[in-house]
């Protein structure tokens, strides 16, 4: 496992998202009511940044064509999206958000 600090908890309010650029993938960090989640930031349908969309509960809405994904599992929840997002394990450590970039 290769854990990487991606944010401070205070940077991302509940219901907000943050894009983090890593060498191999852009990752979206989500702060839901029940904690933090991380997926690839790129919509699998149209190569659009998901953090430019909106987050409602555990569902992120792609701003380009309205596709939806569950941030907990990466599974698509509406057309035109049919391919799941890559997800990453997340931990909060002492006020910092960390992801396992090897997923």
UniProtKB/TrEMBL annotation:
- Which cofactors are required for activity? [2Fe-2S] cluster
User: Matching InterPro entries, A to Z?
Assistant: Rieske_2Fe-2S, Rieske_2Fe-2S_sf
Keyword Oxidoreductase appears in the UniProt entry: yes
Enumerate the Pfam families for this protein.
Rieske
Q: Where is the Rieske domain?
A: 4-99
GO molecular function: any one?
Answer: metal ion binding
Keywords from the named record: 2Fe-2S, Dioxygenase, Iron, Iron-sulfur, Metal-binding, Oxidoreductase
Q: Does the keyword Iron-sulfur apply?
A: yes
PANTHER family from the xrefs? FERREDOXIN-RELATED, RIESKE DOMAIN-CONTAINING PROTEIN
Q: Hey, which family's this protein in?
A: Belongs to the bacterial ring-hydroxylating dioxygenase ferredoxin component family.
Name of this chain's protein: 3-phenylpropionate/trans-cinnamate dioxygenase ferredoxin subunit
């Amino acid at each position: 496992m290769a854990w990487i600090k991606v944010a401070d908890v205070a940077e991302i309010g509940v219901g907000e998202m943050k894009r983090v650029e890593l060498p191999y993938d852009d990752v979206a960090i989500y702060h839901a009511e029940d904690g933090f989640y991380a997926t690839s930031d790129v919509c699998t349908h149209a190569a659009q940044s998901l953090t430019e969309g909106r987050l409602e509960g555990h569902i992120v809405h792609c701003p380009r064509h309205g596709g939806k994904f569950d941030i907990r599992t990466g599974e698509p929840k509406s057309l035109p999206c049919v391919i799941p997002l890559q997800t990453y394990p997340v931990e909060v450590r002492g006020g910092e958000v960390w992801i396992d970039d090897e997923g």
